[in-house]
Amino acid sequence: MGNRGMEDLIPLVNRLQDAFSSIGQACNLDLPQIAVVGGQSAGKSSVLENFVGRDFLPRGSGIVTRRPLVLQLISANAEWAEFLHCKGKKFTDFDEVRQEIEGETDRVTGANKGISPIPINLRVYSPHVLNLTLIDLPGITKVPVGDQPADIEQQIRDMIMQFISRESCLILAVTPANTDLANSDALKLAKDVDPQGKAKTPKIDERIDRYIGVVNRSQKDIEGKKDIKAALEAERKFFLSHPSYRHMAEKMGTPRLQQVLNQQLTNHIRDTLPAFRSKLQAQLLALDKEAEEYRGYRPDDPSRKTKQLLQMVQQFSVDFEKRIEGSGDQVDTVELSGGAKINRVFHERFPFELVKMECDEKEMRREISYAIKNIHGIRTGLFTPDMAFEAIVKKQVVKLKEPCIKCVDMVIQELINTVRQCSNKLECFPRLREETERIVTSHIRDRESRAKEQVLLLIDLQLSYINTNHEDFIGFASAQQRSSQTNKSQSSAGNQVIRKGWLTINNISIIKGGAKEYWFVLTAESLSWFKDDEEKEKKYMLPLDNLKVRDVEKSFMSSKHIFSIFNTESRNVYKDNRTLELACDSQDDVDSWKSSLLRAGVYPEKTITSETTTATDNFSMDPQLERKVETIRNLVDSYMAIVNKCIRDLIPKTIMHLMINNVKDFINAELLACLYSAGDQNALMDESQEQAQRRDEVLRTHQALKEALAIIGDISTSTITTPMPPPVDSSWVGGAAGGRRSPPPSPTAPRRMSSGQRPAPRGAPPPPNRPGPLGPFNNSADSPQAPSRPNRSSS
């Protein structure tokens, strides 16, 4: 009733929606919203009711629609309505719907003409509608009344613009017939949204006029309960009989308006279908392989379980090896993991931990002097004792146990993380995943004890024999020249670049611009930073002499990880700052920079207890003892350099052999046997409930996609055109007043008719004095036009 032109689309669109509803998805054809816009009491609600076919909107004088009404029409077998704020309550009497709209409006805005942008959401289920959205918006008013604010006009305008600015909104601009189109508020709003008329695309039939006259029910008709069907009959009689409109009667009236909207909706659906079809075809193609695997799938088939178990274990083994050895696929682009993380542990974290174990210079010299004195005992020694050298060396070697064990722990943690990452592909089979992780992790823990034993054995080997005949050991004769040789070797390194990267200087005052990010370049002699990575504008260069690194506690207000550089002689490091605080995005980046600074000779700060500080401050040496201490110090440095070089080489090799390679071999050769011996292999392959649901969903979705593509084929061929009403015979117009005969309208002449225009039966304009459609439909080149915008997003 009132929208018969759309009923041809209803069965096909509903079939498409039903196909998607069966799999719990929405059919997104992006049907446009139809927003009715116009001045106060222009007849917007009547146009909307005619379109819906129901009399259900509030009526009265002044501003009646004071909140947007978002009306969702849903095709159904029965007819009822429900509100979003009254979920579960069905309204079958549409007089009650009107009362609920009025009551809900007053609840938010009050009963004294106040307005609110909060919409009322109403759903109408009917067998006579197509699924789409209609919006009844407040009428444009200029004078505030009641509780309305002084800027009521701007508020209503902003409210309307929120809706009609949307790409998929179709604007019905309603203008009374006794109003000049040039002064139409509705058309002005439409022009503001689409000033060039670009939203009107060639997809709309050029023969369709953009201005259409309709006759709404008068207030007397409404109060007299005149139904919409009778009103439509009266409307058609008016256009056929009135001298000003009878020659264009087939282009006027509510049915024509509905026909135009139906044509645009039809075209919109047709224009949307190619992209929609492509999307469905892509989804279907993506599911083809998986659906083929699931078709005929028997979860309890023992042979299938055995085969799938073999495939899963093999895939797990391949994935683990790829993550450790590196490969082109399965690349983590977010953070280091697997083999890359272990590589960083071997070559950055482990060397850094070794250096952290080294004694502070003053502390080392104090220990050497005490060792020399204690070895000589009550006698005054004439020669530098060998035993002092060995005692200090062994003490330093023992300190290496902690960083070596820590290196093993870090590698183990990364191996376990890698196992968990690889087991993600087993999540379809929870028991298999659980058993796989348990077996492999248990093996890693077993190898952990073996690896740590071997690491400690390597340290014990270094303690068992101090080889002073090593080719790299400087010996007692050359110990005095060690310092000068070291200085020469450092200067020969020159400006060798050790590291480059972005760092944030964290302790710049807000007055001077606050924390800033710079491009840093670390060489063997200096730390420089530039404005950017082009390295053209150098901001500062900091020599590395007497610098050390200190940890800085992370602030709970900052996401950055911070470390600082300071001068051991209490001098300013950077301008007026005693320290230079540098910030990174992660702790790994901090550790990496500290390791690079270590290579450049910038060592971490030592934590010195109060007892050590007191002993150091009270310590003094005579010149003879100082020479002996210097000799032992150089010897210890030389020998520990040999030990550190050996340890840095052997520990990664030991871990690689006893841990990493062993775990890879275990997964490849023994994991399957362990899984078989762990219990019933059929139980291991019991799929999860989520996997069963996934399989059913894939099959249903695949079938729904096939059905939808078939239905789309029907829609694309069934909605190409909309039947036009039979032409009206206007030959009798020649007998009009004055004997003048109006020429029939040219099919190509650009006639404009007001969209939603409302000529009143009693207030019709007089017949024109010259042929042609004049009067309120005066064809002026400057007259504003209402842009029809069904699918701006797709044009």
From TrEMBL:
It comes from the Eukaryota. GO terms for cellular component: cytoplasm; microtubule; plasma membrane; presynapse. Residues 749-761 have a biased composition (Low complexity). It is found in: Cytoplasm. The keyword Hydrolase applies. Keywords: Cytoplasm, Endocytosis, GTP-binding, Hydrolase, Microtubule, Motor protein, Nucleotide-binding. Residues 780-795 have a biased composition (Polar residues). Residues 28-274 form the Dynamin-type G domain. Residues 717-795 are annotated as: Disordered. Gene3D superfamilies: Dynamin, middle domain, P-loop containing nucleotide triphosphate hydrolases, Pleckstrin-homology domain (PH domain)/Phosphotyrosine-binding domain (PTB). Belongs to the TRAFAC class dynamin-like GTPase superfamily. Dynamin/Fzo/YdjA family. This is Interferon-induced GTP-binding protein Mx. It comes from Cyprinodon variegatus (Sheepshead minnow). The lineage of its organism: Eukaryota, Metazoa, Chordata, Craniata, Vertebrata.
